[in-house]
Structures are given as C-alpha cells and as structure tokens.
Amino acid sequence: MKLEERLGANKYYVDETSPHILVDGAGFSHEEKMKLVNGCPAGLYTLQENGDLAFDFAGCLECGTCRVLCGETIVKTWKYPRNAKGVEFRQG
Length: 92
Ligand code: SF4
Description:
The chain is an alpha+beta fold. It has one domain: Alpha-Beta Plaits (2-Layer Sandwich). It contains 3 helices and 6 strands. It has a two-stranded antiparallel sheet with strand order 1-6. The two termini are 13 Å apart. Bound molecules: iron/sulfur cluster (SF4). Iron/sulfur cluster binds next to helix 3. Keywords: Electron transport, Iron, Iron-sulfur, Metal-binding, Transport. One of its GO terms (molecular function) is iron-sulfur cluster binding.
C-alpha cells in the first residue's frame, strides 16, 4: 500500500475552532522553512511561489517532528488536539 493510501485511510477529527499548531514563517530563511517542507511526513507544509510558507493542520499525524525541527523559530505553538479531536490511525 502506498503512503498516500495509508494516510488516506486515517480518520481526522479536525478542530476548526482551535488549531493545535500555529506557525509564522515571516522573517525566517528559506532553509528554515524547507526543514518543515521536507520534514513533515504528512506534507502539510508547502512553499508558495512568493516564498511564503503555507500550512494546513487538518491532516496532522501528531508526530511532533515540526516542533523538534522549528519549535524555537517558525512553530509558535504545538500541542495535542483537544479531547476527541485529531487523528485516528487506521493502518497501525
Ligand atoms: S506534528 Fe508531524 S504531521 Fe503534524 S504538522 Fe508537525 S510534522 Fe506534520
């Protein structure tokens, strides 16, 4: 089974009212942003044509990689989703 199929099998209970990760890439280098683009296993960080960093927390796997990579720079807030929200793994 391909990675995309495995990720798609998960269920995501998105808390639209309270994002569990907040980021701000303004003022940070291309290299710092690329740590997140390359490091997030779910591919939730993307670099726009104008160099801005885009992020969508809806498919988050709650692995914590982005916090480890940029927890003192771009990632401003990282916490687990509130009770009964977040990812429900379906493929182990
Ligand atoms: S916690 Fe993991 S899956 Fe979620 S945004 Fe960070 S790196 Fe991506």
